[in-house]
UniProtKB/TrEMBL annotation:
Lineage, opening ranks: Bacteria, Bacillati, Actinomycetota, Actinomycetes, Kitasatosporales
Cross-referenced InterPro entries: NAD(P)-bd_dom_sf (IPR036291), NADPH_pterin_aldehyde_rdct (IPR053241), Sc_DH/Rdtase_CS (IPR020904), SDR_fam (IPR002347)
Superkingdom in the source lineage: Bacteria
Family (UniProt): Belongs to the short-chain dehydrogenases/reductases (SDR) family.
PANTHER family: NADPH-DEPENDENT PTERIN ALDEHYDE REDUCTASE, PTHR45267
Record protein name field: SDR family NAD(P)-dependent oxidoreductase
Source organism of the structure: Streptomyces broussonetiae
Amino acid sequence: MGSLNTSTPVVVSGVSRGLGAALARRFAELGHPVAGCGRDRAALDLLRADLGAGHLITVADVTDADAVQTWAEQTVRQLGAPALVVANAGYISPQTPVWETSPADFRTTVDVNVVGVYTLARAFLPRIAAGGTFVAVSSGWGRNPRGRLAAYTASKFAVEGFTKAIAQEAEELLPGVTAVAVDPGGGVDTDMLATCLPDEHTEYPGPQEWARVAADYLLNDVPKEPNGASLTVPSPWA
């Protein structure tokens, strides 16, 4: 996609913790104004203090389309049109057969992982800078099914298909704008991974190590063609 000027705003959802918080800190470290959202007010206050002035860290639930729309309008008004939007917010439940997965857990998984990508696409695609990129954070389990994580697998397969569809719409209606689904590139030791892989998560690098590679990849190396591609961040431990 070509290197972004460091004055160009970057949007990331789910910045309360994990990959989103690490990306927000790394983008800011590289000089980009960051617009981030999440639900944990205390964690967002800490992130806001860490980043300092010139960023917009907002309490907003990605399943609330009106809240995300308001956040997008505020982002453009205060920081300018973003050239990179990362729909990162995610949810995963413990491993369990689908017949033991509660309706509430299944619904939350779909709402956060799928509806949350939709609300960002709805709010930010019309506002993205010319030639910008919309990234939906996917998963290897959105390409290869994982038993006992059927809800998460279903949600990430949906993200992959949704991204390909909006890429077609962008090609027709938003020339130069790219939409891609990006697998983080292997396990990252986050709270989410600990939830579903409690005995394995510590074997993987942490979010900060991952973000040093991922931020550069998302800023500079996401290809413009083919639009709608399913991509993978280079593994920082490879």
